[in-house]
Amino acid sequence: MLTGSLAIARREWVAAFGRPLAWGVLALFVASFGLLTLWYDDLFLSGVASLRGPLSWLAGCLLLVVPATTMRSFAEDQRTGAWQVLHALPVTPTALVVGKWLGALGVCGGAILLTAPWPVALAWVGEPDPGPILGGYLGVGLLASALAAVGIAASAWFDSQVLAYLVALVAGGAPWLVGRALPLVPAPLVPWVERLTAEHHLAELARGVVDPGSFVYFLALAAVALRLAVHRVEHRRLA
What is the pTM of this model? Predict the structure, then answer.
């Protein structure tokens, strides 16, 4: 299965970076992140050598950008007829979905790497604690993996790219909406409901606290989404 998944992932990488859309999305991502962290919320005027604020903005940018990188995954294959070609390959539905997911992660990883000048600049002007920076980027990577899985599932279930984008955006943003609703939750339940929010786990990792529960949270979201995608692919193959 691994060989088939890597072959699919390689195909997705070549297809993604061979289109102007991917480069446009990456450019928009970096421009938005720079605008939010250097103009709207100036990193260097805070007086604190910390990336906690920028990492929060980075997570928000990923919420908007990742669905744009995944919406074409299966929907485009349906439109171009490549779906029949993929069905003819000796690749299991699981390998196909995992390959699509790894391909999306490659694009997301490239986007995250483009933010590397921020911690470098922060280290140049101050003495930040490397623990929270590494933990924060680890959290962002885990978030990207979950969002990519949700986007792959949405693309597998909906033939329309626009609909796949909107569904992935709403599903990926649901944990943030739960966080905004915490003031409405009875006080005894707040610690339990808070653990259902992405913000809580990202904040913990950004403080340098490596909690196994955060890994379980993001990986469980990714696993459930990928399983839904595999179920849809299996159903289409039988149909």
Answer: 0.87
